[in-house]
Amino acid sequence: MIPTRQRITMSIVMFCLLMFACFVQAKGSEWEKISGPVDSVIVGYYPVQETVRVLATKPPTGDLYEYNLSSGKWTKIGGPGNMFTVDGVGRIYALGKDKKAVFQYQGQRMKWRKIGGPAGLIVGARNGVAATNPQSGDVLLFTVGTGKWTKIGEPVRRLVSDGQGRLYALSPDNAPADKAGVYLYTGTPMKWKKIGGPAKEVYTGQRTLYVTNPQTNDLWRYDHSTSKWSRIGSPGRMFAGGTDRVVYGLAADGNAVFRCDGKSPQWQQVGGAAASIHAVGRELFAINPKSKELYRYLGLVQLVAADFTVIAADQALAQAAQDFVAWKSSRGHSMAVVTVPAIYQHFSGVDGADKIRNFLVDAKSRTKIHYVLLLGDIDKVPTRILYAGKAWVAEHRPYAADFYYANLKTKDWDPDDDGCWGEFEDDQFKTMAKHDIVVSRIPFNNANSIKMVLANIIAFEKDQGSWKRKALLACGFFDPKTDGAVLGERIDKDILKPSGWSCRKLYFHKEATESSYLGGANTGLLTSANVQKEIAPHAQGLITLSGHGNPTGIASYYTTSDGKDATQHFHSTSQIGSNFCSAVVFVSGCSTGPPRGWRRTAPRHSDHKVAVDGYRFRYPA
């Protein structure tokens, strides 16, 4: 096994690249019909699965259906009700058709549990549901953890919640002048904070509150960080908040839908007539005023991915991937391509890497994205600098990791707030280091180089020779006591043999250091000469090199006869050339490249005859 005390550097020469594809822009109309006639639409965020919930009631029965953004299918989950809502963690609630009971959806089709009696209305809260007493008008809150209802407020005119479940209310029409206004529930029963004066209507987004002025009907936004209001729009029939302060408005006459990015008071028309609009996250839906059919806006999801996503540094590199995209499509992948500038235009973040990751997080919530291929070096397609942590590396040096794009569920990469992201101990990253998608990179900014590498991948996949089911495992010692042969044996036993592969293994022996696995079947001595002898075009489909790495090659540790530590190289990166043209090569070793201003095997190859050139990055294991 790879020693946990080391900072292991993995150079995946081609290993993961055989499975990837891309994001395409929406074609044709920017609106897509997703349902026939609907009576109502309910939306909410589902943070557990990092996606959104889209519900609709449909005529003639009024039954409740849920829409799957990935499959495009609707599933009936409940019968008719007076109203439905979603709480801050994605749970669904219903008020019975006769308004005599409140129900909670149990996550299985048509299974609901009664949690309360009569109610005037219901609104999803942070971890439960709020309701008004039909007689007194008082506001009650059901908390999932306790299973109890608690009175939290006096009667209100309007009660709403944002995507996080924060509750807001408008004071009753008969409220005294000094009490009239907009209120935020503090989380303590009967304690509401007045955050604004009188308002006509109230709307919410993922984390944002909007109201309309009772005199002018202009739209105003509340900033939680400054506790200030700002005017952002003119009157409209209705508004719907999305994410990142994006808000949508339906014109007063109902004949046009507009979008404001929240950064300026400028509004852009994105659609025609609508009966109503509904936003959640980066999704926007509208009901056709005549047919009552439900439509989904695609203008914001031009970057929605297929299962195989290619992210190219620019349009030139995207064009260079055309043959690859066509080939992968013929192999059954749904493909799409998106450029870095397009991502930067549509997504926000603290830096370029954060924007790209936000794009992937958003894409994962929309579709079944599995593979991502980055085209371009880190000056064009940025990576993320992470840290192994002081408990792992005395000098606390950083390592560059595209794994930042593969792990989409980690919310905070620096919990201890020391500026060093991804520390295994200090940031508890060792418990979070799991990938959600497979990510790899071809580190060239030149279109011809990209095209050449991708052409070799295609050639590799087209070749159906039996040599592709043969492997070479050349494994040295990572340190004087950690034998890489353990890794080799696990690969052979757990992966290769069950899949019907044959395997040639080279293990190390010199002076006082000897692998305990030498002498087994198909096993030889690990030396530079033997490695070169084994490697040849169409000799094996997989080559694994593991041991003590450095920027120029890979070696094995050993202990000399007089008890000193020493190393012996068994393969140099400069040797990777035309004789590697037919294999998937996986290199595992320490320090195979400096974390900043990466050195790569790839630029040293004038012929580009390897299927995929190496891109080294540090990875603590």
Protein architecture, described:
This protein is mainly β and 621 residues long. The protein has a domain at 16-25 and 302-463: Gingipain r, domain 1 (Rossmann fold, 3-Layer(aba) Sandwich). The protein is 12% helix and 37% strand. The protein is built from eight helices and 47 strands. Strands 1, 36, 39, 42, 43, 44, 45, 46 and 47 form a nine-stranded mixed beta sheet that branches. Strand 17 (182-185) and strand 18 (192-196) form a beta hairpin. The longest helix has 16 residues, at 447-462.
Summarize the structure.
Helix content is 12%, strand content 37%.
Q: What is the percent of helical residues?
A: 10-25%
Task: Give a quick account of the main beta sheet: strands, pairing sense, barrel closure.
Answer: 9 strands, mixed
Structural class: mainly beta
What is the mean predicted local confidence, pLDDT?
A: 83
Shape: elongated
Query: Would you identify the CATH architecture of the domain at 16-25 and 302-463?
Result: 3-Layer(aba) Sandwich
Distance between the termini: 9 Å
